[in-house]
Each structure stands twice: as structure tokens, then as C-alpha cells.
Amino acid sequence: MSNKDTIFSAPIDKIGDFTFDERVAEVFPDMIQRSVPGYSNIISAIGMLAERFAKPNTHVYDLGCSLGAATLSMRRHIEGQEGCKIIAVDNSHAMVERCKLHVNAYRSDTHVDVIEADIREIDIQNASVVVLNFTLQFLSPEDRYSLLEKIYHGLRPGGILILSEKYVFEDNTAHELLIDLHHDFKRANGYSELEISQKRSAIEHVMRPDSIPMHKQRFSEIGFSSFEVWFQCFNFGSMFAIK
């Protein structure tokens, strides 16, 4: 049972930038379920996509793995895929330590390496599946293209990138409506107006989402042969890109 997220429940005099520190790691499962619509569906489907695309004797990457939800979903689905190894990477020490505990809690024939590192500095090699589950949006915009390009070159032909993100929309009316619906979702999950407001202030300089056309433009320029949105709920969603 995870701890309840109360990080922004009391008034904060000076709101700093959001960080994935020890406090966030403690409440992360509760935070993500109450903040990201469709999160459980995305995690389940990542496992299903991994089962379809993971090949024997290849690497599966979870870049920005946090507590390992996507890693564990993929491990369940690719159990028995000979020589397949999952490499889970995060730059938060608190997240990595908890991810290791989760991974080691159950025996599995699928080997998982949990690494504390900057995903921009990781070599992507012999990959059949790469996951960026709500990760790319936290990189500076100028670093996003180069990381996606590196992933493309590290993927085997026919390999898949799964990219989950929060989106912005070019139509202002639609954009504002989807933001309002997301805030309604958070209210329905017990967050107060104060929590919603303070979290938004903390994260606005840290997370800078892209539009769906921007993601598709990058995929096309880099050389992916097929790409599409496979899931969307309000202003959150997930895409695939196949090499």
C-alpha cells in the first residue's frame, strides 16, 4: 500500500521546481494514479506491446523508469523470451533504490538491470523495445530530438519506441477544455484546489509538453516508418513509433 500524496496539501510560501526526490518517491504510486488519467491502461498495454515486439537476445529499455511500473509490466509479458534483458534507467537515486526493491521482490527468468544514470548518456544498443513513459517531457526541448535519434539508431529494424506524454494543443479552446477536464479528474481523486494550483506552479518550468504534430514531425524526420497515437485521455496519451 503506497503512502498518500499530501506534498502540496499545505500552503507553501515559495514554491520551488518539482523534483523526483525522496518525498515524491514515497508517494509516487498514489500521485501518478490520481494525477494521470489512463495510467493503469498505459502500463498494461506497454506490457502487451513488449510481448509483441521483444525479440530473443535483444535489449528492452525503460528510460526514466521511476519505480519500475513499465519495467515490471514488460517483464511479466516477455517472460520466457530467450536472452532478452531489460535495462531500466533513472537519474533519481530515490526512485532507483525503490525500483530495485520492486524488481527483486519476485523471481523471474528475465534479467533486469536497474541503473542510476542520465538517460541522455546511456548507450542504446540491440534494442527491440524502448519505453519513454512520461519522461521526454522533462528533458529540455533541445535534447529531445537527439535522444529520439539515438533511440532510433539503437533499435533493430522492426523495433518499437513507446512514448507516453502530456500534450499541448494548438486549438486554444480545445487546449483549455482538456486542461479543465484534467483538473476535474484530479478533484474527483481528492486533490484540493490548493494542491492543484501549487503542483501546477511547481511543475510548469520543469515539464514542457509538446503537441502531437510536433512528436509526429520528429518521428518522420528521424526516419521511423510508422507512428501513431494509440491511447489518449484528456491531455495525456501514448504513441508508438516503429523503425
From TrEMBL:
PANTHER family: CARBOXY-S-ADENOSYL-L-METHIONINE SYNTHASE, TRANS-ACONITATE 2-METHYLTRANSFERASE-RELATED. NCBIfam families: carboxy-S-adenosyl-L-methionine synthase CmoA (TIGR00740), PRK15451.1 (NF011995). The lineage of its organism: Bacteria, Pseudomonadati, Pseudomonadota, Gammaproteobacteria, Vibrionales. It catalyses: prephenate + S-adenosyl-L-methionine = carboxy-S-adenosyl-L-methionine + 3-phenylpyruvate + H2O. Belongs to the class I-like SAM-binding methyltransferase superfamily. Cx-SAM synthase family. Homodimer. Keywords: S-adenosyl-L-methionine, Transferase. This is Carboxy-S-adenosyl-L-methionine synthase. Catalyzes the conversion of S-adenosyl-L-methionine (SAM) to carboxy-S-adenosyl-L-methionine (Cx-SAM). Residues 60-159 form the Methyltransferase domain. S-adenosyl-L-methionine binds at Y39, G64, C65, S66, D90, N91, D118, I119, N133, R200. The keyword Transferase applies.
